[in-house]
Amino acid sequence: MSYEIKLDVFEGPLDLLLYLIRKNEIDIYNIPIALITEQYLEYLDMMRSLNLDLAGEYLVLAATLIHIKSRMLLPPAEDEGDGGDEQDPRAELVRQLLEYQAFKEAALNLEARPLLDRDVFSRGAPAEDPAGTEDEDEVMIEVGVFELVQAFRSIVAGLDKSDDLVIDTERMSLTDKINEIMERLSEKKQLTFNELLGERTDRKGIVYTFLAILELMKLRMIRAYQAGPFGTIRLSLAVEG
Amino acid sequence: MEEKTAIIEAIIFASEVPLTVERMAEIIPDTDKREIKALLEKLVGEYTERGGGFCLMEVAGGFQFRTRQDLAPWVRKLKAARPAMLSPAALETLAVVAYRQPLVKSDIDRIRGVDTSGALKGLLEKRLVRIVGRKDVPGKPIIYGTTKKFLEVFNLMDLSELPTLRELKDLQE
């Protein structure tokens, strides 16, 4: 028996509730709260007995259901003068369910569309251009941490996984790395992300270089630019030295 | 075939991304967008009539040659690699972002009733969703929106081509 069972039949508590409503052929605008709450709790018990990691959201909805159930039992407050416009305790939940259902349907509609690279194909995929396009009139956009992390990942992914374990005698320090990058940048004015990281083959060297770049960006010592999505990331000194 | 139509065909063929009418107008001298649109319409019609293996389609605000949908099994054989499919959670999240953008993560969590961090991260990595900015409220939460790639992948001309949400419309009546 594996403990890695994941009940991904339901996308969340709302999904489970919708399933119960459908299963019982219930009118969503008139949910018999007592019945649904009971069944909902039964499902939670079942999921728990299957050793499933029950997300907190499921419990929140259970509490909401019980709360609604108790409110339904109370006689409607009549002391309010205006009365008449009595709010159904289920209204908010129904609204939430309908909204979720709409998006669930929208997701299925999206999935049914002719998807690129699944149902339709464009001409051969654009080749990865490692050298980067050397267009001078490219409009450079400033790169955020997210793009940097992406670039970092693609370099790490390209690493030789079968690297032998090397007991390294060379001790690296972040300060050294930062100084090295600053030196190289003041010499060359501009370096691409790949030039800085790509020449290192050891994981540690790459990690240190990457951390140094992040640190320098935080300190606003350097800037990172990109010509467009997927473009080469270029680094330059923030202040011309 | 008229020379200009041939030029349009050539540049769309050579372009790696859907080519916009604006870009075509820049490339072809003495031609305005209206003329290009008219020529494009003819060209699209020719390809459709021909009934060949691919046609000229309007996606993500531009034009691109794409294979016919019913021929997908053969092209898939050629490509060998299985396309990375989106999980139901990712699709739901994507649908919420597409219809409600720009929005912050807590909005998505509220609609879906679950934490969407994982799904959202996957969509960002696939570049179907992007960070649009930060909301000017305490904590400066990140605002998300869909990308041009989303339109390309889901074969949409623009966001207005998304079908309207049925239930919500009913509810507002």
Structure characterization notes:
The complex is a heterodimer of chains A (241) and B (173). In chain A, strands 1-3-4-2 form a 4-stranded antiparallel sheet. Chain A has 2 domains: 13-76 and 86-112, no CATH class; 141-159 and 171-237, Structural maintenance of chromosome 1. Chain E (Arc Repressor Mutant, subunit A), CATH 1.10.10.580. With 241 residues, chain A is α+β, with helices and mostly antiparallel strands. Chain A has helices at residues 13-23, 33-49, 56-73, 91-112, 145-157, 174-188, 193-198, 203-218, and strands at 141-142, 190-192, 222-226, 233-237. Chain B has 173 residues and is α+β, with helices and mostly antiparallel strands. Chain B folds into 2 domains: 3-77, Orthogonal Bundle (Arc Repressor Mutant, subunit A); 88-161, Orthogonal Bundle (Arc Repressor Mutant, subunit A). Chain B has a 3-stranded antiparallel sheet with strand order 3-5-4. The radius of gyration of chain B is 20 Å and the shape is globular. The mean pLDDT of chain B is 89.
